């Protein structure tokens, strides 16, 4: 997926960013998040059957994850944080809540794991 597919602009709009000062960071988060999603999808596949481009119907997941990671900058590795009466808790596995959407792209290398004997 190319970075100019509108992901950067959509993320900036949702975050209320109207300048280019955060573009380098956001582009890096887009690349890292794309790699993370593709790694999750391809974990049970052989190299020859791996998906190398993020499917368009998963772009919304990419945007969500990039925004979560942007909001977490400076607090990486923490599970929770509290400051001046404001408390934040972060997910340990950002892809876990999207698993039902990613599952359709995960194909086991040797079929569905069902054997029937007649």
Which terms would index this structure?
4 helices; mainly alpha; 118 residues; single chain; two-stranded antiparallel ribbon; globular
Description:
With 118 residues, this protein is mainly α. It contains four helices and two strands; from the N terminus they run αααββα. The N and C termini lie far apart (45 Å). The mean pLDDT is 82.
Question: What is the topology?
Answer:
Elements: H1 7-15, H2 23-41, H3 59-72, E1 80-83, E2 86-89, H4 99-102
Antiparallel strand pairs: 1-2
Question: How is this structure best summarized?
Answer:
By secondary structure, the protein is mainly alpha-helical.
Structure summary, number of beta strands: 2
N-end to C-end Cα span: 45 Å
SSE order, one letter for each helix or strand: HHHEEH
Helix content: 25-40%
Structural class: mainly alpha
Mean pLDDT: 82
**Low-confidence parts lasting 5 or more residues at pLDDT below 50?**
none
- What's the multimeric state? single chain
Strand content: 5-15%
Q: Which overall shape is indicated by the principal axes computed on the Cα atoms?
A: globular
What does the main sheet amount to? 2 strands, antiparallel
Spatially, the strands of the biggest sheet line up as 1-2
- Count of helical regions: 4
Tell me the Rg in angstroms. Answer: 17 Å
